[in-house]
Amino acid sequence: MQNKLTRREIVRRGLGLPLAGGALLTLSGCGDSGRNGNDLVCIDSDALPSAEASVRRSLGYTESSGVPGQSCSGCDFFTAASTGGGCGSCTIFDGGAVNPAGRCDSWSADA
Length: 111
Known about the structure:
Elements: H1 7-14, H2 19-27, H3 50-58, E1 78-79, E2 88-90, E3 96-98
Antiparallel strand pairs: 1-2, 2-3
């Protein structure tokens, strides 16, 4: 599959988000209270670097999707956790932790 640069990717790269921010998100707590993702808390929004918090706000990220059939686990940008049932990561958020039951405005059906 050809790797296309989208407008969002250009904007994200233009923000110059530090790699440490992605590492911080990956290490942030993922309280695994449920296997379906609905009870997971994958990020501490207060601990996010301001640039990353701004990206998440501007894209309307939520830990729980309110749109039937559109959650992070079914999105093309999502990568599931290797342990299963936990927080995954999102390429839009520079690999930062996301809830598989979450959603943002950039949701795109998994190809």
